[in-house]
Amino acid sequence: MKEGIKMYHQKRIPYYPPATNFWLDKIQRKVTLYFTLHNSSYTHKNFLQKMLRYKIFGCKTNKYYTDEWLSSDYLQDKSGVFIASCVVTDKAKSKWLKYALRELQNLKGDDKVYLSGCGTMQWGEVDPRFYEVYSELLPYREWLELLPEDPRESRLVGKKFKLQDMSSRISNLRSKLQKSSDRLFARKFIVVQMGCNNYCTFCLTLQARGRHRWRSPEEIIHEVEDFVNMWGEEIVLTGTNIGAWWSEDSNDFQNWELPILITKILEQTKIKKVRISSLWVEFLSDEMIELFGQSRITPYAHLSVQSGSDRILGLMKRHYTRGELIQRLEKLKSLIREDGARINIGADLIVGFPDESNQDFADTLSLVTQYWVTQVHGFPFSAHQSHHSVPAGKFPNQIDEKLKQERLHTLLQAGDDSLDAFKKSHDGQMLELLIEWEPNTEKYRGYTQNYLWCDEANFTITQWTIERWKYVRGIYKYRRDDNGKREEELGF
Fold first, then answer.
1. What is the pLDDT of residue 384?
2. What is the DSSP secondary-structure string of 431-452?
3. What is d(CA 313, CA 45) in angstroms, rounded to the nearest whole number?
4. Which domains are present in the chain?
5. How far apart are CA 360 and CA 424, in angstroms?
6. Which of 107, 183, 313, 321 keeps 20 to 30 A from 29, CA to CA?
7. What tens digit of pLDDT does each residue of 426-446 get?
8. What DSSP character marks residue 372?
């Protein structure tokens, strides 16, 4: 028991000795209210079951499927740690691998490491050569279990996975409190599309996640309605290439079906805010831009840009030009919204792509400085030479790692400067904030609808009741600090 008490204290979770089911119900209510599940690493605990921790690496898709796995009956009696892996860059691979090795060496009893995410997959299924790729994990095979990305798509022989029925959770207090998607994050991530048919020369998505496919509008709307019924106020539509939703091919840039889905969600549900995650530039149509003018669509557009140089875009096999990109950025910036909020723009950008000249990098940098790209997700090009590979990893004129880091630093600094200017332009304005909480305190924090980080020091609430995971209105106050805020910590 002393060991259990120590473990609970380390995780800052109150410890309770064994008790009756009646008493456990009361405990569970208190503990659930105690949790501040804003981080990408926390303990998922059913007090009638064992303890299972999780850690998420990578994209919002991994956040969504972690949510689904922790809701599945398969993990309900398991203990140890669940890890969502990522292979988008060499650095990302090394981070989750190092974490997994550390956890494997610290396992006790019948604990295991349950590994999912794109690090475990090849062409959308569990990679049979996994231990050839990650030979460091082979000695720990007995304590490691590989899982597919989605529990509903498992190909594992003899294993059946089932998600708890959402409607029953709503009517049953205990199961509702246990449901990870209620409280993993302040907002609900919803995958609408998976996979990709594109062959961008820098990307492993097709190799890892497989071909393009999508979910039906009925299934998506049902999931949104369930979240609304559990008092959720913001969803994030995400996927590998969400702009291609309902298209037969992710290279079909002429069919703009995503606006139809978003319109259906707005018309058929009462969700307060819809956030749109990582759009490809090719799918940022005029119709899509018009949707960003609606008050229920959050005024934050994150674009998969990668480069501002026509020459590099061609080498990457992207399907747009610098001129087309700039035209769409200008339309977004000039958009007048129903609520008067200004559009904030984020972008994925790669530096150090093979043969990237100083001028090519300058073209990318100018997108940030001239168009106020404030949320820069900058990455040095990863060759992925070790097993998984990308075509550009074999291109001539590979860029020196030191130069990559110098360019990355310059790019991120420009993003911070753009963010600072954008924040300064909102000083004294009325904005909406989705309430989260500082860990182990009663102090609130969160993001505004256009993705400005706030806490009690720079956001004064003036309207609506302060409730966790609810929107409030208040006055934003400019401050210089907190640029490039901790997305991984916040789970956004």
1. 81
2. EEEE-EE-TTSS-EEEEBTT--
3. 46
4. 35-153 (no CATH), 176-424 (3.80.30.20), 430-479 (no CATH)
5. 30
6. 107
7. 999 999 999 998 877 889 999
8. T
